[in-house]
Amino acid sequence: MTGSFDILIVGIGGQGTILASNILGEACLIEGRHIKGAETHGMAQRGGSVESHIRIDGLYGPLIPPGQADLLISFDLLEALRYSHYLKKEGTAVVSRNLVIPTSVYTQKLTPPTEDEIIAALKKHGLCLIEADRIATEAGSPLSQNVVMLGAASRWIPLKPENLLEAVKRLVPKKTIEINAKAFQMGRDAGGKS
């Protein structure tokens, strides 16, 4: 593969965005691939916007410029919409159907976009929608949604799925390895169906 493969992972605080980016980094190390990454913690608290930039085999700095991401992995529909301008025209968005309406929408009496409006806007790129909360719960823990999303996105990531799974096993707490391995595989299966 030539050139950088750029992945932007977005979500809100507490959804496991940073762990997901660390898993990608670990998988790159397993494969001996060059990686650059950067994280931006919006409000640095649960509920604040979090973004992780991952550049596999990148030649330039760690931040992905708008319009240059090959893949957007979003743990929330609104966050996917907020960061969709980072995707290349031919890029793909792997998005959880989860929708968290920020408190500011209520305090400012705003009307949030509907799920259908968000999905319609995201369809200008390749779009893979995942029921991450349902799949994670079936795998054994709703906390494994981030790993479900990595499994779903693994079909587009230029790393071997077995190395991504090995990275999951290395980085999740030991007592949750089995649940997260199952979550990864179930996410991968779901990503193949979209």
TrEMBL record:
SUPFAM superfamilies registered for this protein in UniProt: Pyruvate-ferredoxin oxidoreductase, PFOR, domain III
Protein name according to UniProt: 2-oxoacid:ferredoxin oxidoreductase, gamma subunit
Gene Ontology molecular functions: oxidoreductase activity, acting on the aldehyde or oxo group of donors
InterPro entries found in the cross-reference section: IorB_Oxidoreductase, Pyrv/ketoisovalerate_OxRed_cat, Pyrv_flavodox_OxRed_cen
Record PANTHER family: INDOLEPYRUVATE OXIDOREDUCTASE SUBUNIT IORB (PTHR43854:SF1)
Protein origin, superkingdom: Archaea
Domain Pyruvate/ketoisovalerate oxidoreductase catalytic: from-to ranges: 13-188
Parts of the chain that traverse the membrane: none
Keywords for the protein's UniProt record, in alphabetical order: Oxidoreductase
